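Data card: per-record layout.
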Amino acid sequence: MARPADEHYGLEVSEAAGLAPGSIYPILIRLEQYGWLESRWEDIDTHAEGRPARRYYRLSEKGAQQVPLALAKTNRRNGRSPVNFRPEGGLA
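The structure for this 92-residue chain is written out next.
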């Protein structure tokens, strides 16, 4: 949320969240279906790079609006203080 326009590939998201890739990818797919994420395939020469193309995800405008509300709701249910998000920049 600090930089909602930044793109991250799935494994990077998995490692940051501390979840196995098999857990994170279904979540990313659902969030994209809900309109909270946008994604694109990396445009590379897979042979020259020696690896498959990565799928990059970023928050959509809808996601940038909804995520803080969802986290605040979750925190209220769990009796935690609200999370204060102040995105730097914004969506491009």
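Known properties of this structure: The longest strand covers residues 37-41. The chain has one domain: 8-77.

See the next section for split statistics.
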